[in-house]
Design brief:
Layout (H helix, E strand, L loop, with lengths): L1 H26 L4 E4 L7 E4 H25 L13 H13 L7 E5 L3 E3 L3 H9 L5 E9 L5 E3 L32 E3 L6 E5 H11 L12 H11 L3 E12 L10 H18 L2 H19 L1
Parallel strand pairs: 5-9
Antiparallel strand pairs: 1-2, 3-8, 4-9, 5-6, 5-8, 7-9
């Protein structure tokens, strides 16, 4: 009953929001302004047109909600009062899932992904190959069919002037290069499976799962560090495949995204790197900034 009431409440609020957008679209349809997008420079448009873009996003959310209500009535939706980011938002979901003692696995999946039909089955199969495996990362493919990542690397965190940053396999076109399961340093939060036991151990130590100070970005590498410190391995599942549309929430090069990545990478370096490795990290950061300045 509570689930149905939650869905109905969300649907009602989305409809009200769409009606509000409709009024603003008409009111400001001829008011000129400059529009900034994530993929191109600012360009002239109208404020009404910008409201229409936001309204389109809300309409897609409403259609998705109706699809879920009709086809997946067993799905539980958690209502939060604001955007708490990837870290705390997923933490709330994990806490809810842990109320069911039968839950053995937790999967975090980005909202801009299209998974293969056997994706979840393959993740679970890879996780069961060794008892010490606590995290499993997917084969994440971009729309151009190149690899986005198979997980995250510690070494590339010190070499951020490399394309793809901390992502393992970024830009590789030949998928056969990663055609078998291998151990990696940390999973990508795009599509990751965690075993319940590992998350319980992390919570016992830190009183949270993902570090909520990160808000979004790099929290997946952080949880990889913690899991390894606790004795768990991370595996890449070669058959767990999905397409990642990438940066559909904050945008590919939005100021907010850049700030979070920069800040969180420094937070992680301060938390885990030795003094000598931290100095190397700073050197690479300076090289990166000089490269972009050109």
């Amino acid at each position: 009953l509570r689930f149905k009431e939650s869905l109905n409440l969300i649907e009602e609020n989305l409809k009200k929001l769409l009606l509000g957008f409709g009024k603003k679209i008409k009111e400001y349809k001829d008011l000129p302004c400059m529009a900034y997008t994530h993929l191109q420079p600012a360009e002239p448009t109208t404020l009404g047109c910008r409201f229409a873009v936001y309204a389109q996003d809300v309409l897609l959310d409403l259609k998705l909600l109706n699809f879920v209500k009709k086809n997946f009535p067993q799905i539980r939706i958690i209502l939060l009062d604001k955007n708490y980011g990837f870290a705390e938002g997923n933490n709330e979901g994990i806490k809810e899932a842990f109320k069911d003692k039968k839950v053995e696995y937790i999967v975090c999946l980005n909202n801009d992904t299209i998974v293969d039909k056997n994706w979840l089955k393959e993740l679970i199969a890879s996780s069961e190959k060794e008892e010490s495996i606590g995290m499993v990362s997917s084969l994440v493919i971009l729309p151009d069919k190149s690899i986005h990542n198979i997980g995250l690397s510690l070494e590339s965190a010190l070499e951020l002037n490399k394309d793809g940053g901390i992502s393992i396999g970024y830009g590789v076109k030949n998928l056969k290069k990663f055609n078998k399961d291998i151990e990696i340093f940390a999973p990508s939060g795009t599509a990751v499976l965690f075993k319940r036991d590992m998350l319980k151990d992390i919570y016992r130590v830190n009183k949270e799962f993902f570090d909520e100070d990160f808000f979004a970005y790099v929290e997946d590498l952080d949880i990889g560090f913690i899991g390894r410190y606790l004795g768990y391995k991370c595996k890449f599942s070669s058959k767990a495949r999905l397409i990642h549309l990438h940066s559909q929430t904050l945008g590919r090069a939005s100021p907010r995204k850049i700030f979070l990545i920069k800040r969180n990478t420094f937070l992680l370096a301060i938390k885990y790197l030795s003094f000598s490795r931290f100095i190397k990290f700073l050197e690479e950061q300076i090289k990166l900034n000089l490269r972009y300045a050109k």
